[in-house]
Amino acid sequence: MMRAAYDEIADWYEEEFLRAGRGKGDDPLGIDAALRDLLGRGGGLCLEIGCGTGVHAAGVRDLGWTPVGIDLSGGMLRHARNRLPIAKADAERLPLKDNSVPAVIAMMVHTDMPGYPAVLREVARVLRPGGVFVHVGVHPCFCGGFADRGDLDAVVIRPGYLDGHWTKESWTDRGIRDKVGATHRPLPELLHAFLAAGLTLERFAEGGTPTPVVLAMKACKGR
Q: Residue 110 gets which letter from DSSP?
């Protein structure tokens, strides 16, 4: 379902949605800042799960890493192929050996993955001991079908936050969620999925003002 939806909106996402975001400033939600801060400088392969059109590849390269991306959507990958090496693959079944990569990132995609706990287990499997995983996603407390962000000075949180669910409800018809939907997990459930996968949470960041839009986390695999 998600794959077909993103195939259908890939051109809109690349040509309109991303352009509109750039018009609001270089990094209005702090997504790039969180990636730089939590991933940090390094070397070797950095796997991006759900890489979409590959817009984060340049930032990964600037930090010294070599980006490689996987995604289920052929439409999105059509735009990504000129930005980084890609493969069409399922994040719940990564085509990589155990303990094979030093870094993995997931950029604003966890709500697109109903099986995110299984994805985290795969991340832990393919990471080398001591490897780094950076998750940058929509903030589960302030974003979702239950949240009306029409007035950023008074975000309205309606009942529904505790109900983990998939929905296409959205406060705007100019975003992504009303088109492809989203899977919501309350914050404790999301954090527990990291722990259950065997990942150790190390650092956190939030982005977007005046009420956060983004929650970012750095986790490591034990040596």
A: G
pLDDT in tens, 198-219: 999 999 999 999 999 999 999 9
Q: How far apart, in whole angstroms, are the C-alpha atoms of residue 88 and residue 217? A: 25
What would the DSSP string read from start to end of 148-211? Answer: E-SSTTS-EE-TTGGG-EEE---S-SSSSHHHH-EEE--HHHHHHHHHHTTEEEEEEEEESSSS
User: Could you give the count of Cα atoms lying within 13 Å of 191 in the half-sphere of its Cβ?
Assistant: 13
Cα Rg, the chain, nearest whole Å: 16
87: its two tokens: 């493969």
C-alpha dist (Å) from residue 147 to 101, 129, 138, 215 = 37, 38, 12, 15
Q: How many Cα neighbours within 13 Å face the side chain of 159? A: 0
Contact 136, 105 (CB under 8 A): yes
What is the CATH code of the structural domain delimited by 2-221? Answer: 3.40.50.150
| Residue 101 predicted with pLDDT over 60 | yes
Residues 159, 163, 166, 167, Cα dihedral to 10°: -10
Residue type, 132: V
Least-confidence region, from 89-93, 146-150, 172-176, 199-203? 172-176
d(CA 218, CA 118): 18
What mean pLDDT, rounded, does the chain reach? 94
What gap in Å lies between CA 150 and CA 173, rounded to an integer? Answer: 11
pTM of the model: 0.95
Domain boundaries, the chain: 2-221
